[in-house]
Amino acid sequence: MIRSLYLAGPDVFRPDAQARGRELKALCAGFGIEGLFPLDQEVPPGITDPAAQAGWIYRANIGLIERADAVLANLDFFRGPEPDSGTCFEVGYAVAKGKPVFGYIPERGSFAERIRERHPQAIGPDGVLDVHGWSIEEFGLPLNLMLSVPAPLVVGDARAALAHLVRYLAAGVQGPR
User: Fold this and answer.
1) Is this model's pTM higher than 0.90 or not?
2) How many CB atoms within 10 Å of residue 153?
3) How large is the angle between the packed helices 17-30 and 158-170, nearest 10 degrees?
4) Mind listing the pLDDT tens digit for each residue in 33-71?
5) Cβ contact 105:142 at 8 Å
6) DSSP letters spanning 61-79
7) Tens digits of residue pLDDT in 89-99
8) Which end of the chain is more exposed for a tag (fewer CB within 10 A), N or C?
9) Residue 92 to residues 47, 72, 101, 143: CA-CA distances in angstroms?
10) How far apart are CA 104 and CA 107, in angstroms?
C-alpha cells in the first residue's frame, strides 16, 4: 500500500518552490497520500559551509526516500533536453531500494521526438545525431530507457500521475515492474 510519496523533481529550484511544495503535498492529500517534499526540511542554521550543507541535504533527501512508500517524479526536461540529474539519481535510488516510481512528463512522443520538438538547437543537421555527432536514443520511449523502463511515465502533470498511481493500486498492483 502506498501511503507516502517522495516528490522528486526540479520543482525545488522554482522561484516559488515552497508554494509549489505545498501545492504538491495538498494534491497528494486529496488522494489520501502523504507527500514528502525535499524542502520540508531546512538545513540547520549552524551548518554554514556549502559542502556541509550539500551533505546534509543529500542525507535528508535520502532519508525521505527511505521513509516514503514510493516516488512521484517530475521528469520533464530541465535546463536542456534531459530531466534533472538529481531527480534521475533519486529515481535510481528508489528503484534500487525496490520502491515503486511513477513519473510524469508534459507531452507525448519518443525521447528523440521530444528533443527535436522542444530543443531543436540540440539536434544536428541530419536530424539523427546531436550537434556533437552523438547518437540520440530512439527506442520509442519518452525518456532514456533507464527511466522509461522501471517507471510508468504519465503524460500530464502531477495530478494525472497521482490519478494513474491510484488506478494502478486499485487494480491490485503494488508498484511498477
Assistant:
1) yes
2) 21
3) 30
4) 999 999 999 999 999 999 999 999 999 999 999 999 999
5) yes
6) HHHHHHH-SEEEEE-SB-S
7) 999 999 999 99
8) N
9) 28, 12, 9, 14
10) 9
